[in-house]
Please model this.
Amino acid sequence: MQGCSTRAKTWAIVCTLSLLALPSLPTTLAKDTQHTASNSYNKLWRETLEQATAGHFDSAAKTIKLIPAEGPITKKVSAWLTEYQKKQATRLEFDNKEIELYSRYAKERIEREEYKTAMDWVLLAADCAQDKQAFLKKDWIDALVKSSLDAAEKARKDAAWQDAWGLYARLGDMFEKEPRYKKLEHEALTHLRLESMFKDEKSIEAWQERVEKIKWDDAEAALEYIELYYVEQADFKAITESGLEQLLYLAESESAIKNFDGLGNEDDRKDFVQRLQARLDQVRTAPTLSRREAVRIFRRVVYNINPQTVRLPRELIVSEIMRGALEPLDDYTTMIWPQATSQFDKHTRGDFVGVGISIVENRTTEEIEVVSPLEDTPAYHAGIQSGDIISHVDGRPIKGLTINKVIDIITGPQGTDVTLTVRRDDKDIIFPLKRARVKIQSVKGITRDENEQWNYWLDRDQGIGYVRITNFQRNTVEDVANVLSQLEAGGMKGAVLDLRGNPGGLLDSAWKLSSLFLKSGDGVVSTKGRDPAENQRLNAPGNGPWADLPIDVLTDENSASASEILAGAIQDNGHGLTIGARTFGKFSVQNLIQLSHTNAKLKLTTARYYLPSGRSLHREVTSDTWGVEPNLPVKLVYHERVNMYKLRRKADLLGPQKEVKEDDETDSDKQDVDAKSDDKKADVEADTKDAKKDDGDTDEKVADADKDDKPKLPPLEQPNENTRPDSDPQLDTALLHMRIKLLSMSNPTVAFADQAQSPSVKKQAIDR
Model:
C-alpha cells in the first residue's frame, strides 16, 4: 500500500506540473493549426488558379468550394466560376433540345421528299452535337444522303442546276472530306453562275463592267508567271483541260445562247463546241502538256475558233478561259482584272478617297441601301444613317445600276463635290458632300460610348483591354499600337485580341503586329516556296513593347492567313492562349504580280507559311488537321454565331440603327464605297446571289419546286426561333480566363489573406 501511495503522490505531482504548463500549450497548437490550415487553403487556391488558367473551369469550381470563401477575392472568383458553369449548363440544354427538334423537322421533310430542306435541318442538328461525325452516321441520315444523291443526279441530267447545286452544296457541308461532292457542286455552280450572268440587262451590264479592258496578252503573261513561280510544279495539262471545259460550259448556257447571236445560231454553236471538244480530247490523251503547248491551244481558241464560229466578245472568252485554267491550282490564285484593281488596292491599302459609307444592294427591293456611315467621314458628319436608301447621285437616278457602278460615280478625286439623295421614312433628303481621304478602320473595340467612340475596355476594374482586328492592312499595326498605348496609360494589366472573322491581309502587317507581343529573336513565321527567293524566316526584331503583357487570342473558323500567323506565333512562343474555334487553315502566301499590258494583276500562290514550331497547317479537302487549334476550344452553334455577329454588327453601326435581322449573320454582303477584295469565290457568290436567295428555304418555295403531278402538301409548322441568350460564349471564356490569370499573378496566396478576418488571426499572419 505504501508503494502504491508513493506512486500516487508521484503521479499527482506530474499532473500538477502538467497543469501548470497548460496555459502556454493552446497558443502553440493554435498557431500550428492555423499555419496548417493556411497552407492547406493556399494549396487549394493555387490548384484553383492552375486549373482555371488551364481552362479546366469545372475542376476549378469544385476546388474553390473547399476553401471557406469568406474573403472578397475568393468570393469573387467563386461567383465568376459558378456563373460560367450555369451558362455552360444552359447552353448544353439548348443543344440537346435543338438536336431533338431539328432531327424531327428533318425526318418530316424526308417523308415529303424535300431533301434540301431536310439536310438543312440535319446540318443544324449536327452543329449542336458534341460529335458531329458520329451524329451523321445515323441510319436515317445515311438513307437521306442516298436519296439526295439520286435527286441531285436527276437534276443534273435535267439541267436543273439550281436544284443540283443546292443538293451537292449541302452534301459537301455535311461531309467536308468527300472531294466528289465539292467537284459536283463546282460544276453545278458554274452552270448556275453562267445562267445568272446573262439573265437580264442589269446582269449583262455587271459582267460587261467586269471584263472591260481584259486582254489575252495579260492572260498569257499570267500563265508564264505560274510556270515560274507557283508554289508547286503547275500541271498545265489540268490547266488546259479546265480552261477548255469552262468554255464548253459557256456554250451550254441557255441564257448565253439567248443573248449572243453566235451561240443562238445552232450551226455556229455546234461548230464551236466540236472544235473545242476535239482539242479537249487531244489534251486528255496527252501524257503531259507544257506551258507553251497550253498557250498555243488557248491562243488558237481566242484568235481562230471563236471569231470563226460564235464570235463572242474576246474579253469574255479570255475571262472564262482563265477562270477555268486557274481552278486546278488553288482557291486563292486568281486574276484581278483592270476593273477590279482599284477596289482591291483600296482594301489592302486601308484608305481611299470617297464619302465614307458602307452600302449593300437590298435583296428585296434591289435598291442601294446604306449599311452604316464610316466614322469621322463626310457621310458621318453630314448625318447619313444606316438604312437610308440612295436614290440619286448628283441628281442622276441610280435605279437599275450595279453596285460597282454606283461606287464608281460616288467616289472621285479628293476635294471634289458629290451630292447624294437618300430616301428615309418616305422623305427625300439631299446631302451635299465633299470627297475626302477616308481611313478604313481595321481596329475596333467592344462597344461604343455616348460619343460613338470605341470603348476598348473589356473589364476596366480588372484592367483587361479588348482589341478586335478585322483585317491586316498597312495601317493596322500603328492603330493597334496606339490603342494599346492608351490602354496601358489607363492601367491595362492584360488584353484579349479578337481575330474572329478576320480573313487576313498583308504578311508584313502580320509579322510586325506579332512582334509587338514577342521577345527578341522569337520566331513569327517562315515561308517556303519552289522559288528559293520565297524562302525566308521572320523573327521578332527586338523585345516588343507588350512582350510581357498577358494575352488571350480569340479565333474562329473564319480567322485565316495573317490571323493564323498572329495566333500561331503567340501560341507557339508560349506568350498566350488561343480561345474559340480552329482557324480556317489558309497557310499559303500570295504575291501580287503586275501584268504589263493593262492594269491587271495576278494574285499567285508562291509559298506556304510555317509557324515557329514548323507547322504548316494548310487545309486540303482530305486534311485531318489544319489551322491553329485553340488551347481552350469553345464551339459556337448556329444561333450563337448569329447572336455574336449581331452584337458586333450593332456595335459597328453608327448613328440611329435599324433592327439587325437574323439574315445579317456576317457582313460578307456589305461593300464599303472603297474596298472590296476580288477573288474567285467572291465573284461566284456575286453572280449567283439571286439564285441563292431563291433556294427553297420556305415551305411555299419547296412545294412550288415540285414539278410532278403529286398534290401539294400543306406547309409544315417548323419554327426555328432563336431563343438563345444575346451573349458571346467565346468572349465570356476569354474574360473569365484573363480575370483569373491576372489574379494568379497578383494574389498567389490570397486564400490565406481572405481568412484573416479577426484581429488575432491577422496578428498571427503578420507574426508568421
